[in-house]
Amino acid sequence: MAKRPEKASQNADFLAIQALAFLGEEPERLGRFLALTGIGPEDIRNAAQEPGFLAGVLDHIAGDQTLLAAFAAHVGIAPGEIDKARRAVAGPGWEREIP
């Protein structure tokens, strides 16, 4: 498996951490994220260390146009940058599962 470029990886990881903090700023946003992932509030720290968690946070943000626009505006980037970061965090070969 190819390695992610270090700078892109760090930037993408940081953006994903910002996204998680953004979700946590409002109980409704965080509650929806937790409900969809099945993670309990007490388990977030442990889950955040699992491979794929940060990609999942960005996937969650990208999956809701209103949330995506709000987060992009919050951090001052174009919404398309979130998808780029998601791909960087996930690494090569990751695909979103669509039921």
Can you offer a commentary on this structure?
The longest helix has 19 residues, at 6-24. The chain has 99 residues and is mainly α. 67% of the residues lie in helices and 0% in strands. The protein has 6 helices and no strands.
Spell out the blueprint of helices and strands:
Layout: H1 6-24, H2 27-37, H3 44-47, H4 53-62, H5 65-75, H6 80-90
Features:
mainly alpha; 67% helix; 99 residues
Structure described in brief:
The protein has 99 residues and is mainly α. It is built from 6 helices and no strands.
| Helix/strand order | HHHHHH
Largest sheet: none
| Radius of gyration, whole Å | 13 Å
Low-confidence stretches: none
Identify the overall geometry.
globular
Q: Determine the structural class based on helices, strands and strand pairing.
A: mainly alpha
* % residues in beta strands: under 5%
